[in-house]
Amino acid sequence: MPKKKRAGAGQKPIPKKKHSAAGKEIPMPKKKLKIGFFSLTCCEGCELAVLDLEERLLKALNYIEIADSRLLLEKPLSKKLDIAFVEGSVISKHDLDSLHSIRERSSFLVALGACATIAGIPGIRNSLPDYLQDKIKRNQIKPMKEKAFPISAFVKVDFLLQGCSINEEEFLTFLNRFLHGKTTRLEQIPVCFECKHRQNSCLLLKGIACLGPVTYAGCNALCPSENAQCIGCRGFTDDANFTALDSLFKEIGLSKEERHNLFTYFNQLPEELKEFAKENSGELPNQLKELAGENPKKKIDLEALK
Amino acid sequence: MQLVRVLNYIIEKESLSKWLESLSQKSTLVVPVENETGATCFEEFNGQSLFLSGRTDFSAKKFFLPTNEKMFFFRKKTLSYGISPNFPKGRLIAFGVRACDTHALNALDHLFIKLLGDDCFYSARRKNSTIIALQCREACSSGFCASMGCSKPTGHDILLAERPSGFIAQAITENGQTLLSAEFFKKTQDPFPEPSLECSKGLSTSGIEENLYANFNHPIWKKEAERCLSCTSCTEACPTCYCYSSSDCFEFGSGDSSRSRERDSCQLLRFSEVAGQHIFRPSRESRLRQFVLHKLSYYKKHFGTHLCVGCGRCIDACPVKIDITEIANKIQGDAKK
What we know:
The structure holds two protein chains of two kinds.
Chain A lengths: L32 E7 L5 H7 L3 H6 L3 E6 L11 E7 L5 H13 E7 H6 L11 H10 L19 E3 L6 H12 L11 H7 L24 H4 L16 H11 L3 H8 L7 H10 L3 H11 L1 H10 L1
Parallel strand pairs in A: 1-2, 1-3, 3-4, 4-5
Helix pairs in contact in A: 12-13
Chain B lengths: L7 E5 H14 L1 E7 L5 E5 L23 E8 L4 E4 L8 E6 L1 H17 L4 H8 L1 E6 L10 H4 L9 E5 L3 E6 L2 H6 L6 E3 L19 H7 L4 H9 L5 H5 L6 E7 L6 E7 L9 E2 L3 E2 L4 H20 L9 H5 L6 H13 L1
Parallel strand pairs in B: 2-6, 6-7, 7-8
Antiparallel strand pairs in B: 1-9, 1-10, 2-3, 4-5, 4-12, 8-9, 11-12, 13-14
Helix pairs in contact in B: 6-9, 7-9
Protein name (chain A): NADH:ubiquinone oxidoreductase-like 20kDa subunit domain-containing protein
Organism (chain A): Candidatus Iainarchaeum sp
GO molecular function, one term (chain A): oxidoreductase activity
């Protein structure tokens, strides 16, 4: 049997069909997308959540290249980045300087996780009583501001990936859409929507204060499905009705301090709650003292803090 | 096929679970149960204890309209496309469906099969399903099915009624008759019980579609909207809420993609957003009004039936206790003055 001639050798090239990609590899961008991970003041948990993708992250590495990451690389591989993922909030001069340089280096900047998007856990200090604030200031190396801030307070942020820690599926979806030249947007959907899809009984109806109705969905109602209240780690929706939820919490029997603490657990107070905060700012130390009176262990802790 | 002669059968309480087990071997059987979080809903049967003392918190809607379903796919490599491999197959038996939910399924049938020109996903599920309805012994606390004319089941295959010793069963269709196997069911001369339900809540439905529409700017909308959290509990608990949106999703890097549809809710801000980012119903008031008017006014005006079956799930599910009957009755009362 004669050997088949290789196509193209001494033959007319087959004319390419227009508008047909059948049988061909998909033209993905030749250059890999350069991404970097940066951590400001945070626990680096969101970066770990990305690493939790394991095999799927390895698959994604055919299309992306991790060019800068303190956790993954010895030294940065590239100065210019296509996407910079920044986790953590800005609480010191050092944080602010590195944030500005990251913004300059990257064409797209994504805030990763609760600390970067809404100030999250570091933001708790914003509503702490003075004597605890002093304690933090004493320990801090280079205090810059009185408060912790989300990164959007200082630089232009192109997209938010929310949650504490982030939902790694959402990270992958975002990256995937980016590779296909599609934009992603924040859906104004409350946690309750996904909670109802999982057919959970409502915690608010059971008399447990839950921030589900005002918090961005995307976590698949993780906490309420385990009978734990939503504490708003994914940030408040634009559509949130705080006044109604606040009065519902009042009916449930939460004190002013408890309500304030729940709303500010992860989130900075939005406009509607600012007045509420003003009213209550004087009562916060009292609440801690009350707690201290009830619980001797806490009392010792508080004394030590002073 | 509807049976001409309806016979009554009895089944002992002990043999009910055996019967259900035999049904679940041949097809997917969904039964009302209490789940881990304490909510009552329909789940696939695997020997759990049943919840039969009343209407469930969530209807069996998700087995006919899944919250997220892939419809079709494109393969860029082979330039092919086709209907999703997850296309519904196999028989579904829903056990313990209450009268209100049979009416809700009827309403969805009307919409997805008649009006939308045979939605293949819905009708594949629906045509391959058997509904075993269960008669309510007592009216539930927040239901108003009697006012909506939905207290007697319709469109079911078998009707069951609970008795102290067991259940009395009636096969309505041929499809249902085949399931009443002689192994578990015995013929009986006992009459089928006809309990008269007295719902605690009521709704005066005479001329409601016109009255609600005429009172588009009634102050009650604003008043109730102040409490509303727009949490979508009402629409997601409602057995007739069917709104969905569709979106494309991509497989990583391969260029394959698929289109899926997800449940959507009129209570969400972006629900009525169109190109150019215009939102038709930006205020909470207008979204709440849309929910009530769609159920009790628009649908009746356009298609001849109310989309509300009076199950009262939206009332039970609402964290701030907004009550559709209170709103409707207030407007009805004001209109009659």
